[in-house]
Design a protein that fits this description.
Blueprint: H1 10-14, E1 22-26, E2 28-33, E3 42-47, E4 51-57, E5 61-62, E6 68-77, E7 81-88, E8 94-99, E9 111-118, E10 125-134, E11 140-149, H2 161-165, E12 173-177, E13 179-184, E14 201-206, E15 210-216, E16 227-235, E17 242-250, E18 256-263, E19 274-281, E20 288-298, E21 303-313, H3 325-329, E22 338-341, E23 345-348, E24 363-367, E25 372-376, E26 380-381, E27 389-400, E28 403-412, E29 418-428, E30 434-442, E31 449-458, E32 463-474, E33 479-484, E34 489-494, E35 502-509, E36 514-516, E37 518-519, E38 522-523, E39 527-528, E40 534-538, E41 547-554, E42 562-565, E43 578-582, E44 591-597, E45 607-610, E46 619-622, E47 629-636, H4 639-650, E48 655-659, E49 668-672, E50 676-679, E51 689-697, H5 714-720, H6 724-728, H7 734-739
Length: 744
């Protein structure tokens, strides 16, 4: 499997089918081994004599001075190792080497090593160096799954790469109490395709007995009222250690105003790495946030390690849910949940990873007797009012015994007066696994708040069940369509999609013809569903035509889909003297222009005429007649229109020409040859231009995805670049910033 963004070839990275991407640099011979993580091959670096051995890539790879690059690999051997980036000039002269720290121990199984650093001034090329110090001759060290490229970071992380990964240095962190902060490279056994799992970790070392903690120096901005999630991998010093992560909010003056702590349950399953989460809603006066981590009751010298630290907007179990992450996911406790009646005991599940649908924990419900108990969430504001309906849903799993689950919604007015419950659906557990249990509840008059209420009846003594990924949301249409006349597009909103299944989306006209709709990765033809909410913007829908959408949902392994259909919708055609030119892959380029003269079409054909001696008629050999070709004449009336047409034509992409119905031209995908921009007379300041665009009909592009990087925001840019100058040396245009298309 190729690592996204890897500058190394597959042969060099995976050492399959040979070792041609590598050469000896110091005290070693190279050969191909077996038992690799990506395919069977791996690189064997065999020492010639005791001492350091080094291997390097045969090729040098282009880099840009001032840009941060990352390298990592999986290694196995009898000695500790390190990895480095060797920076070279254009003539191949070594400038310097950015070395990782040496691993804290040797390990004969596959483990991760890596480092990141900024290319120094004068560097135009880089090589990967692999190094270990062996105790004798003919000792093998194994390498595989090697990456060199731009930093791989978590999309949406408010922290920059340096703070998230600590692959560069430890400058993103500082000691807060009874601690020192450094970097270490312990043995970490990340999955082969976990490219976010690095090598260097932040080590928080207790300087004396007592509580020890470190805090991030990085303070990204936040939006008040937004629910945020912080998470990291924790490596506790002992099985009895009380370790935690804390999400903190600060005001504009840097004063801490709130904190939410998530403690790693003790004891964890072992001495490895465990992801711990903490979430919280930014207070009204919050300006920035940070993360702290620590261990309570530490002994002097004990070390808590952190890896992959992320702060992001908290995910939700369902689009539109009114429950914050803490109350729906139970990662830092049971939040506002209570047991108003019965004998059941509710708590966060233990140990780490025992039972969860999302994250590492759930809410456990334990009943010592075969009786009913009521378990209720906190109250949450439910906009919409009387006449609307809400859906409550939990995911539940059977732990022991048996249970009957009834789910309903209890309502309250603005003064917190109890208005009773509506809804009410009863479930049992059909078997092992996680099951969705939901009910629809109408909102009574004067209700402004709602709480999920569960009546849980144990069918046996010592029964246990788990609840996770809870949501309460207003039930909106599953499928909604809206015509956006300003952009000549249709917005299709799909709700409550089954994550993990696949989806196909068709546009259907009055003639019954189905056409696949374009998504981020190309046409939406059995694309994996990654979110319960999908918004599709269809810029290729015809103008002035009645149409609807057919949605096919494909469960894994299914031979027939579950279908939905939308209401009908029509884009207003507008003035017939105007037509649209659209870029299917980059709708931000789309423009509407005043047409001067439609094309006089030609349909070229390749023919050869052979006149046979003695025959009256020639023999003609013909190919297939081609599509339409002709010159489209149009006007641009302003400098802004003219610049827009230039931008549209710059890419050379296939375009979609759409005219109003009745103009004798069907929607057509075209390529544009050499375009002519002519002045129309008058003064030099006259903005009108007459354009001639030579069009050639072509097929619809099927692999082109709708432009844009999914999830990319200005926060992702701000997390990577401290100044505007950094953008200028990295991107050629604002479009490059939007799509993350970097120079070089």
């Amino acid at each position: 499997m190729a690592i996204p963004g890897n500058l190394l070839s597959a042969t060099t990275s995976e050492v399959d089918p040979n070792t041609s991407g590598w050469t000896s640099k110091l005290n070693c011979t190279l050969s191909k081994g077996t038992g690799g993580r990506v395919g069977d091959g791996c690189l064997i670096v065999k020492s010639v004599a005791a001492g350091e051995v080094q291997a390097r890539t045969v090729s040098s790879y282009p880099v840009t001075a001032g840009t941060v690059y990352q390298v990592f690999a999986d290694a196995a051997g009898l000695a500790p190792e390190r990895i480095g980036i060797r920076w070279l000039t254009a003539t191949g002269t070594e400038i310097s080497i950015t070395w990782s720290l040496v691993t804290t121990a040797a390990y004969s199984g596959w483990h991760r090593v890596g480092v990141a650093g900024m290319a120094p001034a004068g560097a135009t090329q880089a090589q990967v160096l692999l190094s270990s110090t062996e105790t004798g001759a003919a000792v093998n060290h194994y390498w595989e799954n090697v990456y060199l490229g731009l930093p791989i970071r978590t999309t949406g992380n408010l922290f920059g790469f340096g703070t998230e990964s600590s692959e560069i240095d430890a400058s993103g962190w500082t000691a807060e109490v009874n601690a020192s902060v450094s970097r270490q490279v312990p043995i970490a056994l990340w999955a082969v395709d976990n490219y976010l799992g690095g090598a260097h970790t932040i080590a928080v070392t207790a300087t004396g007995a007592g509580n020890a903690a470190a805090v991030s120096v990085d303070r990204p901005t936040v939006t008040p009222g937004t629910d945020y999630l912080a998470y990291t991998y924790l490596n506790p010093p002992t099985l009895a250690a009380d370790c935690w992560i804390e999400l903190r909010f600060y005001d504009a003056n840097g004063n801490q105003i709130s904190a939410s702590r998530g403690s790693l349950v003790s004891p964890p399953p072992g001495s490895g790495w465990y992801r711990q989460r903490a979430s919280g809603i930014a207070p009204a006066n919050a300006a920035t946030c940070g993360v702290a981590a620590g261990v309570n009751g530490a002994s002097a010298g004990q070390v808590l390690r952190l890896e992959s630290v992320v702060v992001t907007v908290a995910p939700s179990a369902q689009a539109g849910t009114v429950l914050p992450y803490a109350d729906g996911a139970f990662e830092q406790g049971i939040a506002g949940w209570t047991r108003p009646s019965g004998v059941a005991v509710i708590a966060r599940s233990t140990p780490w990873g025992l039972a969860s649908y999302d994250g590492s924990y759930s809410m456990s419900v334990t009943s010592a007797t075969a009786t009913a108990s009521v378990v209720r969430s906190a109250r949450f504001t439910t906009p919409g009012g009387v006449g609307t309906s809400y859906r409550a849903q939990i995911l539940a799993s059977l732990g022991a015994g048996s249970w009957t689950v009834n789910i309903k919604v209890r309502w309250y007015d603005a003064a917190n007066v109890d208005l009773g419950t509506t809804g009410g659906t009863t479930y049992g557990f059909p078997g092992a696994g996680w099951y969705a249990m939901s009910t629809d509840a109408s909102v009574p008059a004067t209700a402004t708040q709602g709480a999920i209420e569960l009546t849980l009846t144990a069918g046996a003594t010592s029964s246990v069940m788990y609840v996770d990924w809870v949501a309460l949301w207003q039930t909106l249409p599953l499928t909604a369509v809206t015509a956006v006349d300003d952009t000549a597009s249709i917005t299709l909103t799909l709700r409550e999609l089954p994550v993990g299944q696949s989806i196909s989306v068709y546009r259907v006209g009055t003639d019954g013809v189905r056409t696949l709709v374009r998504g981020p990765n190309g046409l939406l033809d059995k694309e994996p569903i990654t979110s319960d909410l999908m918004i599709v913007e269809d810029y290729e829908a015809p103008l002035g035509a009645l149409l609807y959408y057919r949605i096919e949902l494909w469960p894994d392994g299914a031979t027939s889909p579950i279908t939905r259909t939308s209401d009908t919708v029509t884009i207003t055609a507008g003035d017939p003297n105007w037509a649209w030119l659209k870029d299917p892959g980059a709708p931000q380029r789309n423009r509407r222009f005043l047409i001067s003269k439609p094309p006089d079409w030609q349909r070229p054909i390749e023919q050869s005429v052979h006149r046979v001696k003695g025959r009256r008629n020639a023999v003609t050999l013909s190919g297939v007649r081609g599509g339409l070709e002709g010159d489209l004449a149009l006007w641009t009336q302003t400098d802004e229109e003219r610049a827009g047409l230039h931008w549209l034509l710059d890419s050379g992409n296939v375009l979609l020409w759409q005219a109003a119905p009745g103009m004798g031209v069907a929607d057509m995908y075209v390529t544009v040859a050499q375009a002519t921009e002519a002045r129309v007379g008058g003064t030099a300041m006259e903005p009108w231009r007459a354009w001639t665009l030579p069009l050639t009909e072509t097929d619809m592009p099927v692999t082109t995805g709708l432009g844009g990087s999914a999830g990319r925001t200005w926060q992702d840019v701000a997390a990577e670049f401290d100044t505007w100058a950094g953008l200028l040396t990295t991107y050629a245009s604002w479009e490059g910033v939007l799509l993350d298309r970097r120079l070089g």
